[in-house]
Amino acid sequence: MSENSQNMSKLQQEVLSKYSQLAESLHRLDVTVKQLNQSARETKENSNNVSAEEILEEMRQIETKIGLIGTLFKGSVYSFILQRKNEFNLMNNSSSIHTSNNNNNQNNIINKGDNGDSFMKRGSKYY
Q: What Pfam family is a match for this entry (predicted)?
């Protein structure tokens, strides 16, 4: 063996070393895959024999429930957004009504004097 290693170049020795490491890794991988397959078989034997049709039916029921939940969620979000929009509009309307009432009161005061005569008019040159 030492005679062979002396005849090989350093690069050849490194390549053989890498191949040896690769072979060991593949062997460990093979053992792991076999263990996984064995445990999968044992699990399958121990579990109830459920057909693909039964699993598919359960998945359809779950899908229907998820769709219903999604629809209800979207409706709730839409309702919440409309509620906020209505509250915002009511706040703006009440503030504009309040402002409008104040402006009307001010106009009434400006347009009528103490004796009720109309002596001040908005938009006129003289007050």
A: DASH_Dad3
CB 105 within 8 A of CB 94: no
Q: How far apart are CA 2 and CA 89, in angstroms?
A: 93
pLDDT tens, position by position, 37-48? 888 777 776 666
Contact between 30 and 22 (Cβ < 8 Å): no
pTM of the model: 0.36
Ramachandran bin of 123, using left for φ above 0, alpha for ψ from -120 to 50, beta for the remaining angles: left
* DSSP states along 78-112: HHHHHHHHHHHHHHHHHHHHHHHHHHHHHHHHHHS
The whole-number pLDDT of residue 126 equals 47
Structure tokens given for 33: 């895959």
Tokens of 24: 């060991």
pLDDT winner (highest mean) among 76-80, 95-99, 107-111: 76-80
